[in-house]
Amino acid sequence: MTFQHTRERLTLLLLALLPFHAFLVTVLTRVIAGPGHAPLPELAVWKEAILGLILILAFVELVKKRTIPVADVIDCIILSLGFVALALRLMHHQSATVFAFGFKYDLLPLIAFILLRRVNWSDEFHTTLLRLLLLVGCIVAAYGIVAEFLPLRFFVWLGYSDLHSLYVANGPLAAFQELEGGMMRRAQSSMSGPNQLGLWLLIPLGVLLGGKNVGEEMSGKRIAIGVLLLLALMLSFSRAAWIAAAVMIIFAFARSTSALHCRKLYVVILGFLACFGIAVTLLFPSVFFRFQSSSDHIRKPVEAIRIMMDHPFGLGLGTAGPASNRFSDTCVKLPKDSDWSWAKDRQDLCVFVDGNQVQPSLPSGELRPAGQPSARACSCPLLTENWYLQIGVELGWIGLILSLLLPIFILRQLIIENGKLKINVELSIINYQLSIFLGLSLAALFLHAFEDSAVAYTVWVLLASAFATLHPCHRLLSRSQGPSSSSTSADSTRI
Q: What residues contact residue 95 under an 8 Å CB cut-off, 6+ apart?
């Protein structure tokens, strides 16, 4: 078994299990440590361990080639982000733990991309990966729909928290979130949250929309998969994922207007989305107009810009975004005149009503630093609701500019390569990866889209395999196009 074959098998294993990470770690923690425990760190790092093995194998392959890697503008942007992060750590004397978590969330997937784009990926790997993503997507979507009707006690038995809609850093995960007012659950499936589910489902949806010879392979099975994925995505009530999915569908429709069967598929999908959206809007108008959530999407980016004005060079890696959750209090922010009595028996929660801290109570005229067990001022996570602004808060204006340039150059390269393909005749792996990355890049304007490991690792591995085929030629999925470019020699492969 060659290094490449082993690496590809490990990659398939990693990408297949990533969507089940939160579920598996929660259940195994329940089995090992009992109920009420936070996910065990020893279990949570399995994905980084597998990714590490993959990167080691890729590095060995590069060493065996005895070639000198040549960096392009995309590599330079990523390396510049890393350089800025290291410089800020030295400047701020930042904690190694905080920096490590920030590196894991922000830079590790990008470093993996740099290395994995320089090794070969076989056609067999790509074909298997497409089928695997669709299969896993169906399982995740189906479980997400079924879980909507399961009682809370079932999830508590599995090891989830007895509280919903809250992330507690030192406690078990919440099994689901509820919409404002508690009218409906948001589908979460095996993921750590509904937004994570919605964003990850964009990946199999992109595979479905960009599949090989879509017009010729139009079938009830393909339509059923599309409806299943979209139903779970809609039930996540992630508006950012909805916007991204709509853009992906329109993009796919625009590229396939010459195929009658493709038009049928997209008409079915768009009709389903329209009917679902109208029904939900009429029955639950607050689903689309959630005041608290909508105000956060305005207030938090503005706050992030203000922080960047005060700290133009950034606060350091790990100080904003999901990484900051691990070093902050669990804050519950409620509107004016809300009943917060339900939280009084949970002193690990910081409760704010109309912006005022009501739990733990603050002594008159005294503010104590965060970390004290009682009568203290809470330290809430710094969430920007925007991936680009998160990088800006962490790495300053330079980081913001680099984070905006990165998707622009990647999309530019994918669009150039995609434009060389014959519509509905030639379709390479570039096609579906362009659709997926376009959707996620737009969703990142409203969420921390590239922070979840299932989304980040999958997308950047997919992009790495795509960029590995760009030079000197494309690798087509169709077997009729001749021998695989993965069999080319090291001298003819761009590194």
A: none
Element (H, E) at 9: helix 3-17
CA angle 44, 105, 305 (to 5 degrees): 145
The predicted structure's pLDDT at residue 127: 86
The rounded mean pLDDT for the chain is 80
The domain spans of the chain are 3-66+107-288+423-492, 329-380
Contacts of 379 (CB under 8 A, 6+ apart): 328, 329, 370, 371
Q: How many CB atoms are located within 10 Å of the residue 415 CB?
A: 12
> In sequence order, what are the residues at sequence separation of 6 or more whose Cβ sits closer than 8 angstroms to the Cβ of residue 473?
485
The 10 Å Cβ neighbour count of residue 235 is 24
Q: How confident is the model at residue 458 (pLDDT cuts 50, 70, 90)?
A: very high
Q: For the whole model, what pTM was predicted?
A: 0.83
Which H/E stretch holds residue 223? helix 220-235
126-130, 275-279, 326-330: lowest mean pLDDT where?
Answer: 275-279
Buried b / exposed e over 165-174, threshold 16 CB at 10 Å, is: bbbbeebbbb
DSSP 182: S
Residue 162: which region, alpha, beta or left (left: phi > 0; alpha: psi -120 to 50)? alpha
Which residues neighbour 368 within 8 Å (Cβ) at sequence distance 6 or greater?
A: 375, 376, 377
